[in-house]
Amino acid sequence: MRKLIIFIFCATFLLSCKKIGNPELHSIDLKIITSYASTELGKKLSLHTIQVKILNVNTNVEKELLTDASGNVSFDGISPGVYDISATIKIPAATYTALTGEITDKDVIFNASNKNKTISLNDASLSLKLISGNIGSWLIKQIYYAGSNTTTGAGFRDQFIEIYNNTDSIMYADSLYFAEITGRQSYTNASYYTLPNGQLDWSKSVNMPTNIDANNNYIYPKALFMLPGSGRQYPVQPGASIVIAQTAVNHKAPFTGTDGKTITVRDPSLTIDLSGADFEAYYAPFLPRPLASDIDNPSVPNLIVLAYNGTDMLFDNPGRTAYIVFKGDGITEVKNYPVYNYPTISVPSSTSDKFYQIPNAIVIDAVEIQPNTASARVPKKLGASLDAGYTFAPNGQYSSQSVIRKTDKMENGRRILKDTNNSTEDFDYFSLAAPRGFK
Amino acid sequence: MPTGTHAIICILYNKMKKIFLSILILQLFCFFSYGQGNNESAVQSLTNKIFNADSVSNTSFEFAKKSPFNIRSLMPTQYSNITLGYKQEKGSLMLAQDAGKINETYLKTEGSTQLGTVMLWGLFSYHKTFEDSTMYNHQTRNNISAPYYFGSPINVSYERAVYNLKVLTEKNLTANNLPLGLGADYRIGNHFSTNDPRGAISDFQFNITATLGYTFFNQLKLGTAYKYGYGQERFSVDYKNNSFSQIVLLPAYNNYLINGYGEAYVKNTERDFNNDQTRKGVDAYINYESNNIGKFYFSYSLVKEKQKYVRSNSSGIFNFNQYSIESNIFNLLWLKNFSNKKLSVILNYNNVNGKDLNYIYLANNYLYNAEQIGLKTIFSVKSQANLFNYVLGANKDGEERKDGLTENNLKYNRLDLIVGFGYNRTTPKLNNWGISLTGIYSLPLNDYLIVPAINVGQFTQRVIYYDYMYNTATRVGGNLTTDYSFSAFNQIQAGIKIGVSYLSRTDIKDRNYTYQPGKDRFSSNISLNLYF
User: Fold this and answer.
1) pLDDT at B246
2) Above 0.90 for ipTM, yes or no?
3) What is the C-alpha R_g of chain A?
4) Residue B1 within a domain
5) CB A1 to CB B290 under 8 A?
6) DSSP state of B465
7) Residue B303 and residue B228: Cα distance in Å, rounded?
8) In B174-271, at which residue ranges do the beta strands (DSSP E only) sit?
9) Stretch (H or E) spanning B19
């Protein structure tokens, strides 16, 4: 019996020495290699101390490092997953002029990004090409796409966009265009030809010319608007803005819809007064059944609608749209720009929607919006030359929140807004949208 | 493995309620009618009360509940108990995913008896628990090492109702040399949070054990068992408030998914999944009884469990994770009687090894190991109407968790030292009262924490670091219990038991973390007990 007990104790002891081992999966070291997209500039500009950020979109854990002299940086021990990766460098105007010979009085910012990038176990390195974007004269200052509570607020009818004169001169809003950009709205929709980043491959659209870069040099709006005016009818002072409303009324107060019924909100504090907007969208003249809330405020000029999607200027309230402002190049009228179908795998029918093709070169400012939660994000629509990042209202749709461009500095009493072509950096949010407000 | 729907679980849950109430009423009726005017009943009920107060007997009784193999040797042939109790716990000296305040009401009835040549033990229990409140923890409290679960960073209050039915039977054949046993354990629960985000979990577990043994020379009894079980946990998270359902007012209202032991990430779509479980195992038993050295009861149990985390809908079945758990459990009980004194020594070793299969990568990411070694010595002295219990115990337990994708690696080992004393007295009028005092000193032995800073987010700070601080803190505490019982209706022993516990931390490893466990935790318990 004694031997038996000894045996039992020994067996117990041996089992207690069991080791847990190591998991088969492991973290990875990700090397980011930055370079300038322009070979010429790459020979002249330094790659040292480029700020590189990686944000795990699932966990919101962010890490930031600076590149070495070769433009490389290594993020060691990161968990595989989906990341927003961006790189940026701001070169002072004097340095830029000295290095390149190009005379500029403004600092030059180069950006690169790769959003919603899946970093797998086998990804050891990633290259980013730095591009300098347009530093805009007109800036998209505020976008209120989220709307307010559908039960107690105004739903989506109180949406607006605000465009700002960021220069030191008077500019005229006449014939200024703005647009909502279309694209693939999920990573899994298999009915389109797609690019490696998940976005539509427009080069596969029917009749798309083969001698242009349809994906990198153009964008495709689903809704396209032009501000009216004779050319000098709508001046905008330096540091002032124009507000473009879906419906230019005071949404806090009851108003009568086109069907004769009163439209009210239960909680006015959730919505805003847009009666002072500078322009509004009015779809009734060309829609057989316009929204009851789409009333015409006679004192507010209406937008000229070149292309539309939906029954009013309805911004996608989960936040899956990019916005641009631009002016025509004076050579080709915008309404004469070519239009193309979605690059669907099945051949589109003759009645399928077509979309204007807008050259990136004429875009003055662009902002990409994405949903507030990582799992709902969609393929990025804008390249790094237009917007290296994206922004969103933190509480998502119907939250009354808007995204608002940050103030960079004050100059002679004029507020200069931040514009690095990276809306992740340039934008903050208002808990309650505030037309003409600042942050 | 049944693939029951939520409706089936609800039906089972409701049936369980009815079964439980029926059995309780039947048991009360039987005992009240059986022993009317019978003085033997009064003596028997007092015997059972004293059996319950005798720590050596009670230890043997608890040991026997593990399997049908030992119920004849270690359980009384006539014992019944009904307990209605209320327990409250509060204080922030707790694991991160525990509740700051717990109110629990429970009703338990159990009994052992011999029907002819069949030995029988059964237990029915019902627990209703209110937790106020918990975070990152839309789980039952039964699967603590789970690699895949939902959680909310905002605190949510939980209500839990759990029914449990256990039966063990044994019949000895072939001149009492061939004991055959059968055991069944059925548990069903319903758990839900009462504020948004609302977790709703329904679960059931069913386990059976079949044992076979042989007795040699009346001294040595060898045996083996086969175990099989299955169960299911069904999880979902939703929002009651319309505002929350269409808008995430605060990021804290997001639903998070924990997959492994790394960071939690937002998962606001497809907020439901099932955990389908199956388990198989074998036991080995060696019992040796000697007049000289006492009685030895050894058992070894090996159980292998598979948990499949899946979601099924009209598009098919989607696998998220598969978790394999292997448990090795050794128990050795030594009982020795010396005239009016009794000694019990219980030595146990448990090792639970968990390994997941992450379906995103089709590879293992999460490893879990929990190890516990315990030694408890109880010495009881019975002197006429007095009973003294002396308890000394040491318990070493440790845990290790690794997450491959983040390279998180945590381990701790700690030692609990337990000392206790109890006194129980029976008066000539068959009243019985007792008091017991237990002290615990719990100290960390060794540990390590490897959490690469590059992957640290809210979950790591609020759960992983927090638990690490809790598990490596030095703690001291105690428990005081008093009870009083009297003979009622000349057939039952009715009593009340009150207990209070207090646990305080005396030292903490590092005070630089943002979130840290609190200073103490207090619990109190009151129960009404009937012994037949």
Assistant:
1) 45
2) no
3) 26
4) no
5) yes
6) H
7) 9
8) 178-193, 198-216, 220-238, 256-259, 265-266
9) helix B6-34
For A96, counting Cβ atoms within 10 Å of its Cβ (0-12 exposed, 13-18 middle, 19+ buried), the class is: buried
- Check residue B241 and report its DSSP letter: S
Quick check: is B110 in a domain? Answer: yes
Please check whether residue B508 lies inside any domain of the structure.
Answer: yes
* Rounded Cα gap, residues B478 and B441, in angstroms: 9
For B409-455, how does the pLDDT look when each residue is reduced to its tens digit (9 = 90+)? 999 999 999 999 999 999 988 899 999 999 999 999 999 999 998 88
In this complex, which of B243, B328, B373 lies closest to A149 when CB atoms are compared? B243
3-state secondary structure at position A425: helix
Task: Tell me what the pLDDT averaged over chain A comes to.
Answer: 90
The closest CB to that of A79, out of B266, B367, B455, belongs to B455
Spell out which residues of chain A touch residue B455, defining contact as CB-CB under 8 Å: 27, 56, 59, 61, 77-79
Domain count for chain B = 1
Across A2-6, A56-60, B484-488, least confident range: A2-6
Q: What is the mean pLDDT of residues B211-215?
A: 96
Q: Which domain holds residue B172?
A: 6-531
Question: Within a domain: residue B493?
Answer: yes
As a whole number of angstroms, the distance between CA B237 and CA B150 comes to 8
Residues of chain A contacting B328 with CB distance shorter than 8 Å: 15
Superfamily of domain A28-132: Immunoglobulins (2.60.40.10)
In the block, which residue shows the tokens 């000697």?
B290
Domain positions in chain A? 28-132, 138-430
Q: Check pLDDT > 50 for residue B248.
A: no
Give the sheet arrangement for strand A363-368, strand by strand: A304-307, A221-226, A177-181, A322-326, A363-368
Q: Helix (H, G, I), strand (E, B), or coil: what is residue B249?
A: coil
pLDDT score recorded for residue B64: 96
Whole-angstrom distance, CA of residue B219 vs CA of residue B205? 36
Q: Is the pLDDT of residue B292 over 60?
A: yes
Q: Which residues numbered 245-274 in B keep a CB inside 8 Å of some CB on A? A: 246-251, 254, 262-269
What chain B residue is nearest to A54 in terms of C-alpha separation? Answer: B454
